[in-house]
Design goal:
41% of the residues lie in helices and 21% in strands. The protein contains eleven helices and nine strands. The strands form two sheets. A seven-stranded mixed sheet has the order 1-4-5-9-8-7-6. The protein has a two-stranded antiparallel ribbon with strand order 2-3. The protein is rod-shaped. The two termini are 76 Å apart. The relative contact order is 0.11. The structure holds phenylalanine (PHE). The site of phenylalanine has 10 residues, from strand 8 and strand 9.
């Protein structure tokens, strides 16, 4: 191309390089290709040229090149506007993050499902109880320390927050009589608060009353439950204990990391309790147990501090994602 045309292209390129907006670009286009544009003017000079045909060809080349450069710049500017102002449809969508089940709920579901497999029905109870259901009917004498204001949250002289799920035993037996085979998970309350005790925690009660139910059934079912829950063979031992509502009573210990750990209370339902709910003790007998959900969750998930369950710390809770 003729040197003066090449330098025109050079000038155009420099202008386009610094051009940022569509309006600026249209101005540049007019300066070069408009009615009085630099290139347009060159066309007017053809008539003075020595070789009109050659000059004409050269000018057409120049014009096409200028048009291409301008067009490219325009699409560059328009593209950058899309990124600046408009929605980028290629961006991935925003995630809706689903909640995760709380480890306490996971443990309640897990344990409930195991007992459902043994034919236990799930029973719901009340968190607010009377002394009758929480103590009296369960053969807990009036002077028993658990009845003390220091141990129990009283709402008024008659009502209290249940201190254990054993109160559900009474409701269920009074409602349906024997035979009965239920579990009852839920919240319980005690005036207690330190690193290993929370004023609210969770228990799961079990009750099985039928003809000829004896201590062997109690041992068999609870040993099977421990194996099913931990999904491995675990050494267990039944240690004699005392609860007013069971006779005999025992505590179940499991061997965990080389140490004996107490995991639940149990026993054969006391005759007085059966009589209190009108069940014939000559015909029926049975066992009951109560376990702490937090303790079972801590052992399964290797959680060392009870308080982690109640702090709503997302980084703690998210670890249970995907478990059911
Ligand atoms: N209610 C007892 C407790 O809270 C546990 C238990 C339930 C013991 C049923 C025996 C039978 O410690």
């Amino acid at each position: 191309m003729e040197p003066q045309y090449t330098s025109l292209v050079q000038i155009l390129k420099e202008k386009l390089d610094t051009c940022k907006t569509e309006n600026e670009l249209l101005k540049i286009k007019a300066d070069f290709l408009g009615k009085n544009g630099l290139i347009t003017k060159e066309f007017a000079n053809i008539r003075d040229a020595l070789d009109k045909k050659y000059t004409g060809q050269q000018l057409n080349l120049l014009k096409t090149q200028a048009e291409t450069l301008i067009k490219d710049s325009l699409s560059k500017i328009l593209n950058s506007q899309i990124y600046d102002n408009a929605i980028d449809v290629s961006l991935p969508g925003r995630n809706i993050s689903n909640g995760t089940r709380h480890p306490i709920s996971l443990t309640i579901n897990n344990i409930s499902n195991i007992f459902r497999g043994y034919g236990f029905r799930i029973e719901q109870g009340n968190e607010i109880e009377t002394e009758f259901y929480n103590f009296e009917a369960l053969n807990i004498p009036p002077n028993h320390p658990a009845r003390d204001m220091h141990d129990t949250f009283y709402i008024d002289t008659k009502k209290l927050l249940r201190t254990h799920t054993s109160s559900v035993q009474i409701h269920s037996m009074m409602r349906t009589g024997a035979p009965i085979k239920i579990i009852a998970p839920g919240k319980v309350y005690r005036c207690d608060s330190d690193p290993t005790h929370s004023p609210m925690f969770h228990q799961l009660e079990g009750l099985y009353i039928d003809k000829e139910i004896n201590f062997c059934h109690l041992k068999g079912i609870l040993e099977k439950f421990i194996a099913d829950y931990f999904q491995k063979r675990i050494e267990t031992r039944f240690r004699p204990s005392y609860f007013p509502f069971t006779e005999p009573s025992a505590e179940l210990d499991i061997k965990f990391r080389g140490e004996w750990l107490e995991v639940l209370g149990c026993g054969m339902v006391h005759d007085n309790v059966l009589k209190n709910v009108g069940i014939n003790t000559k015909q029926y007998s049975g066992f009951a147990f109560g376990l702490g959900i937090e303790r079972f969750a801590m052992l399964k998930f290797d959680i060392r501090d009870l308080r982690s369950f109640y702090e709503n710390d997302m980084s703690f809770l998210k670890q249970f994602r995907g478990l059911s």
